[in-house]
Amino acid sequence: MIKELKEMPWISVLFHPRSTIRSVQETNFSKQILILAILNGIVLFFYSAEDEHWGDNLSPGWFVIVAILGSPLLGLFTLYLFGVFVKWTGKLLKGGADAKQIRLALSYGYIPFIFMSLILWIILLSIFGFDVFASGFEDKGLLGRHLNNADSLNPGMTMLTIVMVIIAFPIMIITMLILPLIITSKCIGEVQGFSAWKGLSNYLLAIISLVFSGIIFAIIIGLFVMNQFTRWEFPFN
To answer: CA-CA distance, 123 to 149, in Å (whole number)?
Structure first.
């Protein structure tokens, strides 16, 4: 059984993260990093498109074109950017992984989030189609209709919806948030030569550093724009 799992690293990482990363490092894993980065980019693109209601401004055809062109870039950009912060904060903790090993650890750590999200999006798109990306989808969706019109619904159907949410929500939280955190910590720990707890520290420090750097960058850009604005001379003054 263990031998069979090793031949399927995308599955074995869910059960044996450290040994999986150890064995994958002995192969040419660049292509795996690229594939996982693209899949993660697709997932992130869909979440962003749904949150920003891109369906209001883009036709399905243009949406597909933008997704095809933008998803790989988004996935690679986020992987490389966050990889820089993981490597930098890992050095502070005396980690020994190079940039490519860091990207491998992050790619494999995101596998539960990627595949659970893909399953979720396949279900949503097959049921609701392009409406998922339009504004007001929450009111059009199954749960939205039940909760917003609870008084006019069959009590049995309302209860069924509530039970489904109670069961599904913890599973999604565990699979999409908690499990990736655990696996990523162990994967980072393996390539860095850390324990899982120290791998978690490396991961959290990278997140904090990224957020802090983003805030500083936004402040600098804001001050620059304000400074340029105050220097403008309007001909009608």
So the answer is: 23
The answer to whether the CB of 16 falls within 8 A of the CB of 187 is no
- Residue 177, domain member (yes or no): no
Q: Which two tokens stand for residue 5?
A: 């799992």
Looking at the domain assignment, is residue 203 inside a domain?
A: yes
Report CA Rg, the chain: 22
160-174 per-position pLDDT tens digit? 555 665 666 667 766
Q: Report pTM.
A: 0.80
Cα(35)–Cα(162) distance, integer angstroms: 37
Residues 6+ apart with CB under 8 A from 168: none
Task: For residue 227, give its domain range.
Answer: 2-136+184-231
Confidence of residue 27 (pLDDT cuts 50, 70, 90): confident
Mean pLDDT, the chain, integer: 82
In a domain, residue 44? The reply is: yes
The three-class DSSP label of residue 15 is coil
**CA–CA separation, 183 vs 134, rounded Å?**
34
Domain count, the chain: 1
Percentage of the chain lying above the pLDDT 70 cut? 78
